[in-house]
Amino acid sequence: MNEFWQAIESVMTKYSLVTAFALVGIVVWLSYGVSQKVTRGRMHGSAIAILIGLLLAYIGGIATGGTKGLADIECLAGVGIMGGAMLRDLAIVGTAFGVRLEEFLKTGVSGIVSLLTGVLMSFLIGAIIAYVFGYRDPVSMTTIGGGAATYIVGPVTGTALGASSEVIALSVAAGLVKSILVMTATPFVAPLIGLDNPRSALIFGGLMGTTSGVAGGLAATDERLVPYGAMTATFYTGLGCLLGPSVVFITLRSIVGAR
Predict the structure, then answer these.
(1) 111 and 24 in one domain?
(2) Using 50, 70 and 90 to split pLDDT, how confident is the model at 127?
(3) Average pLDDT, the chain
(4) pTM (two decimals)
(5) What is the DSSP letter of 71?
(6) 205 and 240, same structural domain?
(7) Which of 39, 133, 153, 169 could staple 43 via S-S, CB 3.0–4.6 A?
(8) For the chain, percent helix, then strand, then coil, each to nearest 5?
């Protein structure tokens, strides 16, 4: 029996990326089952999958004493590749290809305003919260503000500005919390804000920005709206990465001073 399990572990380790895909597939299958059977669709399966993923990462970190969650377990090292930037960006671009450009152009000024408003307000709110909790230097405030935009903008901004690993980790945590909140709350607020057409989905994605949160929330609301919200959310991420280390940082430094 021991030889059997050793053989299984050897195969899983050798094909760790395939193992990662299988693991994620099982988690998603279970998550959607829980969504339908337990919450009766009130909580989207992707939101449950993210929560399970975070729990597994925590368990992996505790079990191995490492810093990469499940990826520190040899046979699950492929999780680190699967969750890396390459496949993430491929998924974002692949989703955006489902959008018709003419629908985006219909948003006109409102689409542009939603992007700028969403990005700048997120930075502002994040910076204020950072200041309240004692992070008074412009680098930390900008980095945590970037995390309030998305968990991608935060690390990109922090790396560009030379923020500490602690602050960058806080920015990622802020982005994850925002993503889960947007994902779970969208189906409930959608009827109240008229989120039922491509135009409103584009504006919503521009205001919220977190691609995974917007995509998951819209999938639970109306899956046909996902590409539209995801496209402006992707633009939001790019705009945040550009404005964070430049315009936002310079503005905050002029307000709070260099420390």
Answers:
(1) no
(2) very high
(3) 81
(4) 0.69
(5) G
(6) yes
(7) 39
(8) 85, 0, 15
